UniProtKB/TrEMBL annotation:
PANTHER family: FINGER PUTATIVE TRANSCRIPTION FACTOR FAMILY-RELATED, ZINC FINGER PROTEIN 502. This is C2H2-type domain-containing protein. Its main location: nucleus. Belongs to the krueppel C2H2-type zinc-finger protein family. It comes from Tachysurus vachellii.
Length: 352
Protein backbone atom coordinates (compact mmCIF):
# COMPACT_ATOMS: atom_id res chain seq x y z
CA UNK A 1 0.00 0.00 0.00
CA UNK A 2 1.16 3.56 -0.75
CA UNK A 3 1.98 5.94 1.99
CA UNK A 4 -1.13 7.78 3.24
CA UNK A 5 -1.08 11.51 2.40
CA UNK A 6 -1.07 13.71 5.51
CA UNK A 7 -3.25 16.82 5.41
CA UNK A 8 -2.31 19.93 7.39
CA UNK A 9 -5.33 22.12 8.13
CA UNK A 10 -5.32 25.89 8.75
CA UNK A 11 -7.15 26.62 12.03
CA UNK A 12 -8.11 30.11 10.75
CA UNK A 13 -9.86 29.27 7.46
CA UNK A 14 -9.91 25.45 7.18
CA UNK A 15 -7.72 25.31 4.06
CA UNK A 16 -5.67 22.06 3.74
CA UNK A 17 -2.03 21.62 2.72
CA UNK A 18 0.04 18.51 1.95
CA UNK A 19 3.18 19.99 3.54
CA UNK A 20 3.55 21.56 6.95
CA UNK A 21 5.92 24.19 5.49
CA UNK A 22 3.17 25.26 3.07
CA UNK A 23 0.71 25.60 5.95
CA UNK A 24 3.20 27.71 7.95
CA UNK A 25 3.76 29.93 4.93
CA UNK A 26 -0.03 30.29 4.40
CA UNK A 27 -0.71 31.18 8.05
CA UNK A 28 1.27 34.39 7.60
CA UNK A 29 -1.70 35.65 5.56
CA UNK A 30 -3.74 35.56 8.80
CA UNK A 31 -1.02 36.57 11.29
CA UNK A 32 0.55 39.29 9.12
CA UNK A 33 4.02 37.92 9.96
CA UNK A 34 6.79 38.99 7.55
CA UNK A 35 10.03 37.35 8.72
CA UNK A 36 12.16 38.12 5.64
CA UNK A 37 13.69 41.62 5.68
CA UNK A 38 15.57 43.46 2.93
CA UNK A 39 18.86 44.68 4.43
CA UNK A 40 19.06 47.57 1.95
CA UNK A 41 15.69 49.27 2.47
CA UNK A 42 14.14 47.47 5.46
CA UNK A 43 11.05 46.23 3.60
CA UNK A 44 9.59 42.98 5.02
CA UNK A 45 8.15 39.98 3.17
CA UNK A 46 6.11 36.91 4.13
CA UNK A 47 8.00 34.63 1.70
CA UNK A 48 11.70 34.26 0.96
CA UNK A 49 11.05 34.08 -2.80
CA UNK A 50 9.37 37.52 -2.65
CA UNK A 51 12.42 38.97 -0.89
CA UNK A 52 14.67 37.42 -3.55
CA UNK A 53 12.59 39.03 -6.33
CA UNK A 54 12.53 42.37 -4.49
CA UNK A 55 16.35 42.45 -4.17
CA UNK A 56 16.59 42.70 -7.95
CA UNK A 57 15.24 46.26 -7.66
CA UNK A 58 18.43 47.18 -5.78
CA UNK A 59 20.84 45.06 -7.88
CA UNK A 60 19.22 45.98 -11.22
CA UNK A 61 19.18 42.29 -12.17
CA UNK A 62 16.60 41.37 -14.84
CA UNK A 63 17.12 37.68 -15.63
CA UNK A 64 14.00 37.16 -17.78
CA UNK A 65 14.54 38.37 -21.37
CA UNK A 66 11.92 38.70 -24.11
CA UNK A 67 12.92 36.68 -27.20
CA UNK A 68 10.92 39.06 -29.44
CA UNK A 69 12.37 42.45 -28.52
CA UNK A 70 15.12 41.80 -25.96
CA UNK A 71 13.43 43.68 -23.11
CA UNK A 72 14.31 42.27 -19.68
CA UNK A 73 12.23 41.77 -16.54
CA UNK A 74 12.83 41.02 -12.86
CA UNK A 75 10.03 38.40 -12.72
CA UNK A 76 8.94 35.61 -15.07
CA UNK A 77 5.26 36.61 -14.72
CA UNK A 78 6.12 40.14 -15.93
CA UNK A 79 7.85 38.65 -18.99
CA UNK A 80 4.87 36.39 -19.75
CA UNK A 81 2.48 39.33 -19.45
CA UNK A 82 4.74 41.47 -21.68
CA UNK A 83 4.91 38.81 -24.41
CA UNK A 84 1.15 39.08 -24.88
CA UNK A 85 1.86 42.49 -26.50
CA UNK A 86 3.76 40.69 -29.28
CA UNK A 87 1.34 37.78 -29.68
CA UNK A 88 -1.77 39.98 -29.40
CA UNK A 89 -3.31 37.37 -27.11
CA UNK A 90 -5.93 38.59 -24.65
CA UNK A 91 -6.97 35.49 -22.69
CA UNK A 92 -9.28 37.13 -20.14
CA UNK A 93 -12.84 37.79 -21.42
CA UNK A 94 -15.68 39.82 -19.94
CA UNK A 95 -18.82 37.66 -20.03
CA UNK A 96 -21.09 40.73 -20.14
CA UNK A 97 -19.70 42.62 -23.13
CA UNK A 98 -17.10 40.26 -24.64
CA UNK A 99 -14.17 42.65 -24.23
CA UNK A 100 -10.85 40.85 -23.75
CA UNK A 101 -7.81 41.72 -21.64
CA UNK A 102 -4.19 40.66 -21.33
CA UNK A 103 -4.29 40.72 -17.51
CA UNK A 104 -6.83 39.22 -15.13
CA UNK A 105 -6.51 42.30 -12.91
CA UNK A 106 -7.55 44.47 -15.88
CA UNK A 107 -10.62 42.26 -16.42
CA UNK A 108 -11.62 42.54 -12.74
CA UNK A 109 -11.23 46.31 -12.87
CA UNK A 110 -13.28 46.48 -16.09
CA UNK A 111 -16.11 44.42 -14.57
CA UNK A 112 -16.68 47.17 -11.99
CA UNK A 113 -17.95 49.33 -14.89
CA UNK A 114 -20.86 46.90 -15.32
CA UNK A 115 -21.59 46.47 -11.60
CA UNK A 116 -21.09 50.16 -10.76
CA UNK A 117 -19.16 49.05 -7.68
CA UNK A 118 -16.58 51.49 -6.26
CA UNK A 119 -15.06 49.66 -3.29
CA UNK A 120 -12.32 52.16 -2.43
CA UNK A 121 -13.60 55.27 -0.60
CA UNK A 122 -11.85 58.51 0.32
CA UNK A 123 -12.02 59.08 4.10
CA UNK A 124 -11.94 62.87 3.57
CA UNK A 125 -14.74 63.39 1.03
CA UNK A 126 -16.36 59.96 0.64
CA UNK A 127 -15.73 59.72 -3.10
CA UNK A 128 -15.56 56.11 -4.35
CA UNK A 129 -13.07 54.55 -6.78
CA UNK A 130 -12.80 51.27 -8.67
CA UNK A 131 -9.07 50.94 -7.88
CA UNK A 132 -7.03 51.54 -4.74
CA UNK A 133 -4.33 53.25 -6.82
CA UNK A 134 -6.92 55.77 -8.06
CA UNK A 135 -7.98 56.46 -4.47
CA UNK A 136 -4.34 57.10 -3.49
CA UNK A 137 -3.93 59.40 -6.47
CA UNK A 138 -7.16 61.25 -5.58
CA UNK A 139 -6.07 61.80 -1.96
CA UNK A 140 -3.17 63.93 -3.22
CA UNK A 141 -5.84 66.44 -4.33
CA UNK A 142 -6.61 67.04 -0.64
CA UNK A 143 -2.96 67.19 0.48
CA UNK A 144 -1.64 69.06 -2.56
CA UNK A 145 1.39 66.76 -2.50
CA UNK A 146 3.30 66.14 -5.76
CA UNK A 147 5.89 63.54 -4.77
CA UNK A 148 7.20 62.68 -8.25
CA UNK A 149 9.71 65.24 -9.60
CA UNK A 150 11.12 65.45 -13.11
CA UNK A 151 14.94 65.38 -12.99
CA UNK A 152 15.11 67.43 -16.20
CA UNK A 153 12.86 70.40 -15.42
CA UNK A 154 11.84 69.95 -11.77
CA UNK A 155 8.11 69.77 -12.50
CA UNK A 156 6.13 67.83 -9.87
CA UNK A 157 3.48 65.17 -10.45
CA UNK A 158 0.94 63.35 -8.31
CA UNK A 159 1.76 59.92 -9.79
CA UNK A 160 4.76 58.07 -11.15
CA UNK A 161 2.71 57.26 -14.23
CA UNK A 162 2.23 60.97 -15.01
CA UNK A 163 5.95 61.60 -14.46
CA UNK A 164 6.92 58.80 -16.88
CA UNK A 165 4.50 60.19 -19.43
CA UNK A 166 5.98 63.67 -18.95
CA UNK A 167 9.54 62.35 -19.52
CA UNK A 168 8.56 61.46 -23.08
CA UNK A 169 8.16 65.20 -23.77
CA UNK A 170 11.90 65.59 -23.16
CA UNK A 171 12.89 62.47 -25.14
CA UNK A 172 10.32 62.93 -27.93
CA UNK A 173 9.73 59.18 -27.85
CA UNK A 174 6.38 57.79 -29.08
CA UNK A 175 6.77 54.02 -28.79
CA UNK A 176 3.15 52.95 -29.40
CA UNK A 177 2.06 52.74 -33.06
CA UNK A 178 -1.38 52.29 -34.58
CA UNK A 179 -1.16 49.48 -37.17
CA UNK A 180 -4.13 50.88 -39.08
CA UNK A 181 -3.01 54.47 -39.71
CA UNK A 182 0.58 54.64 -38.42
CA UNK A 183 -0.09 57.34 -35.83
CA UNK A 184 2.23 57.07 -32.82
CA UNK A 185 1.60 57.76 -29.13
CA UNK A 186 3.61 58.28 -25.96
CA UNK A 187 1.32 55.96 -23.96
CA UNK A 188 -0.29 52.61 -24.61
CA UNK A 189 -3.66 53.73 -23.21
CA UNK A 190 -3.62 56.69 -25.64
CA UNK A 191 -3.11 54.19 -28.48
CA UNK A 192 -5.96 52.01 -27.17
CA UNK A 193 -8.28 55.04 -26.98
CA UNK A 194 -7.24 56.08 -30.50
CA UNK A 195 -7.97 52.60 -31.90
CA UNK A 196 -11.62 53.05 -30.91
CA UNK A 197 -11.79 55.67 -33.70
CA UNK A 198 -11.19 52.80 -36.15
CA UNK A 199 -13.32 50.17 -34.39
CA UNK A 200 -16.14 52.49 -33.26
CA UNK A 201 -16.04 50.80 -29.86
CA UNK A 202 -17.65 52.70 -26.97
CA UNK A 203 -17.07 50.45 -23.94
CA UNK A 204 -18.29 52.82 -21.21
CA UNK A 205 -22.04 52.61 -20.66
CA UNK A 206 -24.33 54.96 -18.72
CA UNK A 207 -26.66 52.87 -16.54
CA UNK A 208 -29.19 55.75 -16.40
CA UNK A 209 -29.83 56.43 -20.09
CA UNK A 210 -27.86 53.77 -21.99
CA UNK A 211 -25.54 56.20 -23.77
CA UNK A 212 -22.07 54.83 -24.61
CA UNK A 213 -18.72 56.61 -24.50
CA UNK A 214 -15.18 56.17 -25.86
CA UNK A 215 -13.56 57.21 -22.57
CA UNK A 216 -14.35 56.49 -18.93
CA UNK A 217 -13.70 60.18 -18.09
CA UNK A 218 -16.42 61.15 -20.61
CA UNK A 219 -18.85 58.75 -18.91
CA UNK A 220 -18.09 60.23 -15.46
CA UNK A 221 -18.59 63.73 -16.83
CA UNK A 222 -21.86 62.69 -18.52
CA UNK A 223 -23.21 61.05 -15.33
CA UNK A 224 -23.16 64.46 -13.64
CA UNK A 225 -26.00 65.48 -15.99
CA UNK A 226 -28.17 62.89 -14.22
CA UNK A 227 -26.91 63.61 -10.69
CA UNK A 228 -26.79 67.40 -11.11
CA UNK A 229 -23.36 67.35 -9.47
CA UNK A 230 -21.20 70.40 -10.25
CA UNK A 231 -17.83 70.00 -8.55
CA UNK A 232 -16.00 72.93 -10.08
CA UNK A 233 -16.76 76.47 -8.81
CA UNK A 234 -15.54 79.77 -10.24
CA UNK A 235 -13.80 81.74 -7.48
CA UNK A 236 -14.71 85.03 -9.20
CA UNK A 237 -18.48 84.73 -9.72
CA UNK A 238 -19.46 81.48 -7.98
CA UNK A 239 -20.78 79.76 -11.10
CA UNK A 240 -20.42 75.96 -10.93
CA UNK A 241 -19.54 73.44 -13.64
CA UNK A 242 -19.70 69.68 -14.14
CA UNK A 243 -16.14 69.43 -15.54
CA UNK A 244 -12.85 71.21 -14.93
CA UNK A 245 -12.32 72.06 -18.61
CA UNK A 246 -15.60 74.03 -18.62
CA UNK A 247 -14.45 75.99 -15.56
CA UNK A 248 -11.07 76.72 -17.18
CA UNK A 249 -12.82 77.91 -20.34
CA UNK A 250 -15.23 80.04 -18.27
CA UNK A 251 -12.30 81.68 -16.42
CA UNK A 252 -11.18 83.18 -19.74
CA UNK A 253 -14.31 85.40 -19.62
CA UNK A 254 -12.97 87.03 -16.43
CA UNK A 255 -9.33 87.24 -17.54
CA UNK A 256 -10.09 88.22 -21.14
CA UNK A 257 -7.58 85.60 -22.30
CA UNK A 258 -8.28 84.06 -25.72
CA UNK A 259 -5.70 81.27 -25.91
CA UNK A 260 -6.93 79.65 -29.13
CA UNK A 261 -5.71 81.72 -32.08
CA UNK A 262 -6.55 81.32 -35.76
CA UNK A 263 -3.37 80.75 -37.81
CA UNK A 264 -5.02 82.35 -40.86
CA UNK A 265 -6.22 85.70 -39.52
CA UNK A 266 -4.91 85.87 -35.94
CA UNK A 267 -8.35 86.13 -34.33
CA UNK A 268 -8.45 84.75 -30.77
CA UNK A 269 -11.09 82.54 -29.16
CA UNK A 270 -11.93 81.44 -25.63
CA UNK A 271 -12.44 77.78 -26.60
CA UNK A 272 -10.92 75.39 -29.13
CA UNK A 273 -14.46 74.52 -30.26
CA UNK A 274 -15.12 78.17 -31.23
CA UNK A 275 -11.78 78.31 -33.08
CA UNK A 276 -12.58 75.17 -35.11
CA UNK A 277 -15.99 76.59 -35.98
CA UNK A 278 -14.38 79.88 -37.07
CA UNK A 279 -11.79 78.12 -39.26
CA UNK A 280 -14.61 76.84 -41.48
CA UNK A 281 -14.94 80.48 -42.68
CA UNK A 282 -11.45 80.19 -44.20
CA UNK A 283 -11.75 76.64 -45.55
CA UNK A 284 -15.29 77.08 -46.88
CA UNK A 285 -16.10 73.66 -45.48
CA UNK A 286 -19.75 72.95 -44.66
CA UNK A 287 -19.79 69.54 -42.99
CA UNK A 288 -23.50 69.51 -42.06
CA UNK A 289 -25.81 68.75 -45.01
CA UNK A 290 -29.59 68.81 -45.27
CA UNK A 291 -30.80 65.42 -46.56
CA UNK A 292 -33.88 67.01 -48.13
CA UNK A 293 -32.35 69.80 -50.24
CA UNK A 294 -28.57 69.28 -49.99
CA UNK A 295 -27.81 72.69 -48.50
CA UNK A 296 -24.62 72.74 -46.42
CA UNK A 297 -23.94 74.44 -43.07
CA UNK A 298 -20.86 75.15 -40.98
CA UNK A 299 -22.66 74.35 -37.70
CA UNK A 300 -25.03 71.58 -36.70
CA UNK A 301 -27.36 74.06 -34.96
CA UNK A 302 -27.76 75.97 -38.25
CA UNK A 303 -28.73 72.72 -39.98
CA UNK A 304 -31.31 72.00 -37.26
CA UNK A 305 -32.83 75.49 -37.67
CA UNK A 306 -32.95 75.01 -41.44
CA UNK A 307 -34.66 71.61 -41.16
CA UNK A 308 -37.51 73.27 -39.24
CA UNK A 309 -38.36 75.09 -42.51
CA UNK A 310 -38.94 71.73 -44.24
CA UNK A 311 -40.88 70.16 -41.38
CA UNK A 312 -42.85 73.30 -40.53
CA UNK A 313 -41.96 72.75 -36.90
CA UNK A 314 -41.98 75.87 -34.72
CA UNK A 315 -40.72 74.75 -31.32
CA UNK A 316 -40.04 78.23 -29.90
CA UNK A 317 -42.99 80.26 -28.54
CA UNK A 318 -43.42 83.81 -27.24
CA UNK A 319 -44.45 83.64 -23.58
CA UNK A 320 -46.60 86.79 -23.97
CA UNK A 321 -48.65 86.19 -27.12
CA UNK A 322 -48.05 82.50 -27.86
CA UNK A 323 -46.70 83.10 -31.38
CA UNK A 324 -44.41 80.25 -32.50
CA UNK A 325 -41.12 80.40 -34.39
CA UNK A 326 -38.81 77.90 -36.09
CA UNK A 327 -35.71 79.72 -34.80
CA UNK A 328 -35.00 80.62 -31.16
CA UNK A 329 -33.34 83.88 -32.28
CA UNK A 330 -36.62 85.02 -33.85
CA UNK A 331 -38.34 84.78 -30.46
CA UNK A 332 -35.74 87.14 -29.01
CA UNK A 333 -36.07 89.64 -31.88
CA UNK A 334 -39.91 89.40 -31.78
CA UNK A 335 -41.48 91.86 -29.35
CA UNK A 336 -45.06 92.32 -28.23
CA UNK A 337 -46.96 94.68 -25.95
CA UNK A 338 -49.66 93.26 -23.69
CA UNK A 339 -52.51 95.40 -22.26
CA UNK A 340 -55.31 94.37 -19.90
CA UNK A 341 -57.50 93.22 -22.81
CA UNK A 342 -55.25 92.73 -25.87
CA UNK A 343 -51.80 91.75 -26.94
CA UNK A 344 -50.22 93.74 -29.77
CA UNK A 345 -47.20 92.43 -31.69
CA UNK A 346 -44.67 94.81 -33.16
CA UNK A 347 -46.00 93.95 -36.65
CA UNK A 348 -49.64 94.76 -35.84
CA UNK A 349 -48.65 98.05 -34.19
CA UNK A 350 -46.72 99.04 -37.31
CA UNK A 351 -49.73 98.36 -39.58
CA UNK A 352 -52.26 100.19 -37.37
Amino acid sequence: MGKERVSHCCVHCGKNFTKKSHLQQHQRVHTGERPYRCLQCGKDFSQQINLKTHRRIHTGEKPFRCSYCGKSFTQRCDLQRHQLIHTGEKPFYCLQCGKSFRKQSSLKEHQLIHTGEKPHHCSLCGKGFTRHSRLQHHQLVHTGEMPYKCSQCGKGFMSGHNLRRHHLIHTGEKPFYCLQCGKSFTQQNDLQRHQRVHTGEKPYYCSQCGKNFFRHSHLRQHERIHTGEKLYRCSQCGKTFTCQSSLQQHNHIHTGVKPHRCSQCGKGFISRHNLRRHQLVHTGERPYYCELCGKGFTQQIDLQRHQNLHTGEKPYSCMQCGKSFSDKRHVKSHSCVQTDNKTFTADSLGNA
